[in-house]
Amino acid sequence: MLSIAKYSFGMGDRFAHQARAQLRACILAAEQGAQISPVWNKSNREHTIVGSEPPSVRAAAEAAIRELGWKAPFHIDADHINLTNVDRFVATSDFFTIDVASAIGKPADPAHVDAFVTAHPELFGSIEITGISSPFQTSRDEVRRIAGKYLLAVQEAGKIYRHIAQAKGAGNFITEVSMDETDAPQTPPELLIILAALADEKIPVQTIAPKFTGRFNKGVDYAGNIEQFEKEFNEDLAVIAHAVKRYGLPANLKLSVHSGSDKFSIYAPIRRALQRTGAGLHIKTAGTTWLEEVIGLAEAGGEGLALAKEIYAQALDHLEELSAPYATVIDIRRDHLPTADQVRNWTSEQYVSALRHDPKNPSFNADLRQLLHVGFKIAAKKGDTYLKALRQFEPTVSENVTLNLYDRHLKPLFVGL
Asked: Phi and psi of 231, rounded to 5°?
């Protein structure tokens, strides 16, 4: 079976121009002893907005691999796919994020729920899990309730997995199951029941993305109780280790954190947990690279800065339209956004200070950053004008992309583990 490495890092590249810069960050980490598999991810929605096709992701990645001489594994993630769109990814992806969050809470066939409960008497009573301080108690009725909430979603994951396996051959791809884009975090008993159901579906899941407490807004730091996150993260690691042994799931099954990028405040708790347990991790960022492109353009000054200002002005004009698809993962306060006229009068330094994710900088504006995070549609509409600017100002742009991924993400998470 194609297996994911212990540590892997998912990174988006909206316009397929930064694969080399992204890979350089992984090379810097490798030079410090941290072996991290790059996973280039791009969703169907992002392809639709940009007007690209899935093969473009692999083409960009393989060009970077050849140019920089990368010899370690890498993967191409069909991000957040379902049965309606997976076929366009099958030929060029070897990592599939099966997103079944929309099916959570929809009623499963009562007979299927009854069969699951009957097949798993070990799930009710007092359950002790190594790494969790106190046993948790579950009744038969509680297991039935949880199964009723999640079983249909797991069955949908099974349909999608088997569809991919029929096309690519079982064992030729990595399976991730995503349940993070839902209203409530999964408790340890819920995660255990989900994993038992995934095993019943015979899905060789290698990473699972649950929902955690708190807000994972796009492009900005975690908003929530850090201690609660750390508790949940450690309990999830314990539940996964237990389920691997109990249900015969792949030994390398690991947590996947769909961060939306830049959740710096949870990196220390994650690192502590990895050091303590020896567990693996897949962490997926989204548009942080696109934002570094805009920062690079602004930092270059002249035409680059003018284009960055124009992108902001148009994003502001289309705030509601851009925000709607991401309503659950952004919190933009309109009254905290500068006007287009104010931004037009900014220097390069002012623009960069507002956008670059440095909370210690008093000029940093998290609302502006979130707006531009979802504003890549504006750049996409500019077509060759935007892509030409990326090429024209490539040295400045790529330097920002590399240092952002290495200094702010890979180094604090993985270097020195």
From this structure: -60, -45
pLDDT in tens, 300-317: 999 999 999 999 999 999
Gap between the Cα atoms of 52 and 189, Å rounded = 41
**CA–CA separation, 180 and 80 (whole Å):** 11
Q: Is the pLDDT of residue 286 over 90?
A: no
H/E run at residue 41: strand 37-43
pLDDT of residue 100: 95
Residue 50 CA to residue 47 CA, distance in Å, equals: 5
User: Whole-angstrom Cα distance, residue 290 to residue 86?
Assistant: 24
Question: CA 177 to CA 142: how far, in whole Å?
Answer: 23
Q: Would you list the domain boundaries of the chain? A: 7-287, 289-405
Of 294, 374, 297, which Cα lies nearest the Cα of 331? Answer: 374
- 61-68 contacts: CB < 8 A, separation 24 or more? 61/19, 61/23, 63/19, 63/20, 64/19, 64/20, 64/22, 64/23, 65/23, 67/20, 68/20, 68/23, 68/24, 68/27
Instruction: Give the CA distances from residue 190 to residues 77, 103, 131, 139, 364, in Å, rounded to whole numbers and listed in that order.
Output: 26, 15, 17, 13, 39
- 7-287 has which CATH code? 3.20.20
Lowest mean pLDDT, pick from 16-25, 125-134, 181-190: 181-190
The percent helix, strand, coil of the chain (3-state, each to 5) is 55, 10, 30
> Coil, strand or helix: which one is 31?
helix
* Residue from 83, 82, 141 nearest 113 by CA: 141
Strand pairing report for 281-284 and 254-258: parallel
Render the burial of 128-167: b for 16+ CB within 10 Å, e for the rest. ebebbeeebebeeebbbebbbbbbbbbbbbbebbebbbee
- The answer to whether 161 and 98 are in contact (CB under 8 A) is yes
User: Who has greater pLDDT, 120 or 183?
Assistant: 120
H-helix or E-strand containing 282?
strand 281-284
* Alpha carbons 114 and 315: distance in angstroms, whole number: 50
Bridge partners, residue 136, by sequence: 127
Query: How far is the C-alpha of 327 from the C-alpha of 347, rounded, in Å?
Result: 31
> Over 90: is that where the pLDDT of 328 sits?
no
**Token code pair at residue 387:** 């892509």
Confidence at residue 25, expressed as pLDDT on a 0 to 100 scale: 98
How far apart (Å, rounded) are the C-alpha atoms in residues 97 and 246? 24
**CB 121: neighbour CB atoms within 10 A?**
10
